[in-house]
């Protein structure tokens, strides 16, 4: 039996599958168990060398034996890369570092420049290179720049960490010589702020300078009569990253004019960048193919500016706009102009209306990921919008096909059936509802509506939700009437439809909670409590679910619920947001059952204020 056992665990495919569920430290320890495991797992151990104090004697000795296994090498800025260089005087160079795909160089100095050149040239398969130069304007790094430009396989080049000595002429040389480069990245660079290229001075480098000053070209840009620049356009560059860079609007436009095939643009954390009203149209004129845009944490990125960018790029597939002024205007622009939108990240943005979020989910069929952490969506308002949109559709198209009897009829179905990741804060805010609306859409009905919508997202891998109940917070009589008379009139026909179709929202297994009962705790009424008694079975179709992140629902999840989740969601490997107290009998039972039956399922405590 022992011999058969050993033979099974020596089969390469089995050992490789085992490695997928182990962390790095465990793999390192297990590789010493037998020769078969050591042989198969050694490439995993040496595949990636990360930042750190790795240049001890033991590492250097091992490096000479296993350097050929390294694919990713990230140096700290003061590391000595000498041990990575092949010595041509020695015969045995088989294990030197020759197969790198990604390399982050230490800071370049006149002393180590020659070693860096050798390392680049001895790795012909290098795809991703990151450089940083010592802050010494008098240093000559032309040899390194030529080596980078002549590398035939390089796809991505990054300049990081305060490259104050980076000259525009260096970029010109690299781009002129390199035909393989596709991505250009600048991070944490402050020199653009005061460099004349930021203001389009005619005396600056031909690479980034405009042919006229900004004042001279402003009117021409608006009329789309800008003459073609004589400088060479670099058609191979499709990605430009300028994260945490201090620059001006002019620089972005000048770069865009030289990279007309840009598909990906990142301006995350960009400082001192202020936008004119025509910035979006001028950017689209220069780089009309942008599909991926990151403007998160960028100064002066208000709602009108983001909306203008969205309307200028109707082919947008990914928008990352967290911690900006993204609001109602931008969201409506996405719904109207971007049918191919797949990824939307608007975490920590405020001012969105629940009805607009409902329209987004109802109309954006291509959406695969939505992260709107800290955005509160009032579910009754979503239901109101769903009925309003259905009524409008019936008025425009009075002949509708009947709903199949096998499906539960539900109004305002979300069209994004391919959604794989959803992060939202769903709430029931009574303060924004009239008394009639509260009677027609009680918390239990709102919860059922939400559960039914989620149950149809059968491709969900990651579900991160927070559910909140807000009671009326004022005794002032004026607060009983919510909203303006105009808003009330607009909602009358919606309320009438809800009166007719309330049977679609009833929760069969929730006793009498379908009618608002002031004696019952509001949290128990609305929270998606993930308890079997509150309709958890509705979510059984989510067979692809891998990660479930909750907030404030720990009171509802017991052993029966955990067993149900493990049975119905076989791929679930992480639950976060529950609070476990080993002094409670129920929690001890849950943890004991998980250790015995699902040891690989990660249970992590959550923080209400943690950004997802």
TrEMBL record:
Identify the domain of life.
Eukaryota
- Give the protein name, as stated in the record: F-box domain-containing protein
Q: Which SUPFAM superfamilies match?
A: RNI-like (SSF52047)
């Amino acid at each position: 039996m022992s011999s058969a056992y050993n033979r099974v665990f020596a089969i390469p495919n089995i050992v490789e599958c085992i490695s997928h569920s182990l962390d790095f430290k465990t793999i390192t320890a297990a590789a010493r168990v037998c020769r078969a495991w050591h042989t198969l797992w050694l490439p995993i151990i040496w595949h990636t060398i990360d930042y750190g104090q790795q240049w001890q004697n033991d590492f250097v000795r091992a490096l000479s034996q296993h350097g050929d296994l390294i694919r990713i090498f990230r140096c700290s800025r003061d590391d000595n890369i000498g041990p990575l260089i092949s010595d041509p005087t020695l015969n045995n160079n088989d294990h030197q570092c020759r197969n790198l795909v990604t390399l982050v160089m230490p800071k370049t100095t006149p002393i180590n420049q020659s070693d860096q050149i050798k390392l680049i040239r001895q790795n012909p398969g290098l795809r991703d290179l990151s450089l940083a130069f010592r802050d010494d304007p008098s240093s000559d790094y032309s040899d390194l720049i030529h080596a980078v430009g002549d590398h035939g396989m390089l796809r991505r080049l990054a300049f990081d960490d305060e490259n104050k000595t980076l000259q525009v002429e260096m970029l010109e040389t690299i781009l002129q010589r390199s035909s393989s480069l596709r991505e250009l990245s600048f991070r944490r660079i402050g020199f653009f702020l005061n460099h004349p290229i930021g203001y389009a001075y005619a005396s600056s480098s031909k690479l980034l300078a405009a042919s006229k000053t900004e004042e001279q070209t402003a009117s021409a840009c608006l009329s789309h009569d800008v003459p073609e620049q004589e400088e060479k356009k670099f058609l191979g560059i499709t990605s430009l990253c300028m994260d945490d860079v201090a620059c001006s609007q002019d620089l972005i436009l000048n770069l865009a004019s030289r990279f007309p095939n840009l598909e990906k643009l990142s301006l995350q954390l960009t400082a001192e960048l202020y936008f004119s009203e025509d910035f979006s149209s001028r950017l689209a004129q220069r780089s009309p193919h942008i599909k991926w845009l990151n403007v998160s944490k960028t100064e002066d990125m208000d709602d009108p500016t983001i909306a203008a960018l969205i309307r200028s790029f109707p082919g947008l597939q990914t928008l990352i706009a967290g911690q900006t002024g993204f609001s109602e205007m931008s969201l409506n622009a996405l719904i109207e102009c971007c049918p191919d939108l797949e990824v939307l990240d608007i975490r920590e943005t405020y001012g969105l209306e629940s009805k607009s979020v409902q329209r987004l989910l109802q109309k954006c069929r291509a959406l695969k990921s939505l992260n709107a952490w800290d955005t509160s969506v009032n579910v009754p308002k979503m239901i109101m919008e769903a009925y309003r949109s259905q009524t409008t559709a019936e008025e425009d198209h009075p002949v509708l096909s009947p709903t199949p009897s096998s499906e539960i009829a539900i109004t305002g179905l979300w069209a994004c059936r391919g959604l794989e990741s959803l992060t939202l804060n769903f709430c029931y805010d009574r303060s924004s509802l009239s008394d009639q609306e509260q009677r027609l859409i009680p918390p239990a009905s709102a919860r059922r509506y939400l559960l039914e919508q989620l149950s149809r997202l059968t491709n969900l891998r990651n579900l991160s939700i927070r559910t909140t109940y807000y009671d009326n917070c004022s005794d002032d009589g004026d607060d009983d009437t919510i909203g303006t008379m105009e808003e009330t009139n607009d909602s009358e026909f919606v309320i009438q439809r809800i009166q007719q179709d309330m049977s679609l929202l009833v929760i069969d297994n929730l006793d009498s909670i379908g009618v608002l009962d002031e004696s019952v705790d509001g949290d128990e009424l609305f929270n998606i409590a993930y308890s079997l008694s509150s309709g958890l079975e509705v979510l059984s179709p989510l067979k692809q679910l891998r990660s479930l992140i909750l907030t404030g629902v720990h009171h509802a999840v017991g052993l029966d619920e955990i067993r149900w989740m493990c049975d119905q969601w076989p791929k679930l490997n992480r639950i976060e947001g529950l609070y476990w107290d080993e002094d409670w009998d129920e929690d001890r039972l849950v943890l004991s059952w998980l250790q015995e039956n699902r040891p690989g399922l990660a249970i992590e405590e959550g923080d209400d204020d943690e950004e997802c």
